[in-house]
Design a protein that fits this description.
By secondary structure, this protein is mainly beta. It is built from 1 helix and 7 strands, in the order H-E-E-E-E-E-E-E. The chain has one helix at residues 16-26, and strands at residues 36-42, 45-51, 60-65, 68-73, 94-99, 104-112, 115-122. A 4-stranded antiparallel beta sheet has the order 1-2-7-6, with no helix packed on it. A 3-stranded antiparallel beta sheet has the order 3-4-5, with helices on one face.
């Protein structure tokens, strides 16, 4: 299969970073745990909801680096003196990554009823119109 490159199109100047972003998204390696939803909550806001039953605030971390939202979960081993006859509730760690478009800001993170909600807001950039002055010929002075 031939790899599609944005550099092959002459009208896509400066989009190399977008191409790298798309490659990083494809390689993110997210498995199916924990399950999540993404919903649009208004014209320019979104909510990511992860099913994190059994995790508390201290077990979770949320970071944003280079436009990548990373949510990690790691439960502390609290088995202590407990003896399990059956252990069907997984206590495994996870990492979920979401690549954010430019201008998307991460807002509040709320945990309730075993669900972690992370709110996102997309800020629209200002429209900038620039007029370029046209000069006559190349001069040596």
């Amino acid at each position: 299969m031939t790899k599609l490159s944005l550099g092959a199109y002459p009208h896509t100047l400066g989009f190399e970073q977008l191409e790298r972003l798309l490659e990083r998204t494809a390689k993110s390696g997210n498995e199916g745990y924990p399950p999540f939803n993404i919903e649009q909550t208004s014209q320019r806001s979104y909510r990511i909801t992860l099913a994190v039953a059994g995790f508390c605030e201290d077990d979770l971390s949320i970071t944003v680096e280079e436009r990548q939202l990373v949510i990690k979960g790691r439960q502390k081993d609290d088995t202590g003196d407990r003896i399990f006859l059956h252990r069907g509730i997984a206590a495994r760690q996870f990492q979920r990554s979401f690549v954010l478009a430019e201008g998307v800001d991460v807002g509040d993170a709320i945990i309730e009823n075993g669900l972690l909600h992370v709110d996102l807001t997309q800020n629209l950039p200002e429209t900038v119109i620039q007029t370029i002055k046209i000069k006559r010929g190349w001069s040596d002075d």
